[in-house]
Amino acid sequence: MQQSMPMRSAVSLMMLGLGLSWGTAPAAAQVWDLVWADEFDYQGLPDGTRWSYDVGGHGWGNNEAQYYTSAREKNARVDGSALIIEAHKESYQGKEYTSARLVTKAKGDWAYGRILVRAKLPSGRGTWPAIWMLPTNNPYGNGSWPDNGEIDIMEHVGYDAGRIHAAVHTNKYNHQRANARGDSRYVGDAETAFHEYSVDWTPTRMDFAVDGNVYFTYHNEGDGWVSWPFDREFHLLLNIAIGGRWGGAQGIDDSIFPQQFVIDYVRVYRYIAQPYLTFMPPNALAAGDTLRLAADATDADGVVHRVEFRQGDAILSQHTSPPYEHTIQGVHPGCYKLTALAIDDLGWTTAADTTVLTVGQSCDKAPYLVAPHAVPGRIEAEYFDLGGPNIGYFDLNPSNFGDGIRQSEGVEVYRTTDGSGYHVQSVRHEWLAYTVRVVDPGLYTFFVRLSTYGARAAFTLSVDGVDQVLYDDVVTPNQWGIVFATDVALDEGVRDLRLTVHENNTSINWLRFIYSGPLSTEEEPGWERTMLHENYPNPFRDATTLAYTVTHPGPVQIEVFNALGQRVTRLADHHHSVGRHRIRYDASGLGAGLYFYRLTSGATQQNRIMVKL
Question: Among 395, 370, 397, which residue's Cα sits nearest to residue 385?
């Protein structure tokens, strides 16, 4: 073993200085730099600056039979050329076997890289050696396994000699769901000869290999932490388990002990050929000016896949080919954090330094995307205004437990698991503000995609401080759905919107405004100002709600007609007070088709259409 040491240094230098193609990974040369290693060229206990111990005999979630010891040379020692983890059949702390589990947590933690371990495996029924990785912190999901991921570089169970396994475990894919992602390779002399076990871990994929031959690849599916929690730091673990659900599936052969897991070296590399990027934005503009962003990007060992311009966490634009330029007209007063990112074909990313752009004289309330959101149009809920608490939002709890963007602010933003993007979660007795520019003055239908913990959704939409919408109706709890309100009056120009949630913890995905007609230009007298609103939901299956506003007290009739003009039912025919009124119409006995409903009040008669599915 000691004779191989000079060769190790030569190999390391070659990898540092040259591009290296690896197994069946992409054809473009990849350049790696050694950042952490233990060559085990010393004697005694493992280096305490690199390794710690997991200690105990509680089964480790797998009904394992061993007790993992700490700083006990009988179970973990370095002999001058290799690390030896040795399992024994012996009574210790109430268990019948001892072993060791070495970890690099807080001494070697990496997000992405190439991890290489050259090792010879123990043999015999009941042994279960592993080279694997766990997250150093646990920010995702419920904060535990499998939400925060596991990377198994090599596992081997003694009753299936020579069969090497690699796998990943996530919220979406794990052995408890019986859908863990992984593969295996037969290495006949794995128990008698050294082999190099590795993973190349990039932002877009993981390639698992034996002696440089890739046999399993796991891809980033782009749906966030549920399948890719691997964008945070992980640490390395080396151990021999004895028995357990997998290792002991065919029992433990007590005649085999002691057994050794011998590790020649551990090496960790980082990728050093990220894209080259230049970005020079302005640092000051006047309100109403045009913002022009430009960048140059190249990649030494591949191609530039795209360039993104961002304000904070939000993507302003992305470009797949030069020139990399973006223009925003009519910038709004405020202070904005601008940057650019270049991403190559392997997912490696270079981010430019953030520049704070000052528009005008104040850093108070400002739209998140530099210019006001356009109406008509859709507004992502997480793009609430800048300015902080009581300006861009009101949140009762300043702590942020979200896993999405804007984690430095009090509003929890999460990845939306039933589609792309994000949502604001658990809003109740709180509000979000949005600065918009109304292009076409008129009446709008206002849509909100939301989910509630309870069976009611209740919120107010105010425009320039005046309540325009008071929505309060039954919804299906814990399911995403779209609710809407009609006849929201918006004047042309920049407007301040505020969405206040009243009932239940509500998650909001997006807001949308669709133009429905012009504003009235006449001051209509008397009963003509009473208004019939669109029913909701529409279309509907069994029931729908009819809404109308009465501005003067008096008699009001609400009737429903079929497509032939025949009256189906009369829902209201009595004196009404001033205000907004609702009637829930149970139409479960009505056939599918097109219907219209009519409001009659004095000389006023208004009709609207509804569709039963």
Answer: 370
Predicted structure pTM score: 0.69
Please state, in angstroms and rounded to a whole number, the distance separating the CA atoms of residues 28 and 37: 26
Q: Tokens standing for 396? A: 């009762």
In the CATH hierarchy, which fold is given to the domain comprising 2-271? Answer: Jelly Rolls (2.60.120)
* Bridging pattern class, strands 83-92 and 259-271: antiparallel
Q: Which residues contact 460 (CB under 8 A, 6 or more apart)?
A: 467, 469, 470, 471, 498, 499, 500, 502
For the four alpha carbons of 402, 405, 408 and 413, in that order, the dihedral sign comes to negative
Using an 8 Å Cβ cutoff, are 42 and 78 in contact? Answer: yes
pLDDT in tens, 258-303: 999 999 999 999 988 889 999 988 888 999 999 999 999 999 877 8
- How buried is residue 111: exposed, middle or buried, by Cβ count under 10 Å (0-12/13-18/19+)? middle
Q: Which residues of 512-530 are buried (b: 16+ CB within 10 A; e: fewer)?
A: bbebeeeeeeeeeeebbeb
Tell me if domain 2-271 and domain 276-359 are identical in fold: no
pLDDT per residue as tens digits for the range 40-53: 999 999 999 999 99
- Domain borders along the chain are 2-271, 276-359, 373-517, 526-612
Query: Residues with catalytic annotation?
Result: 150, 155
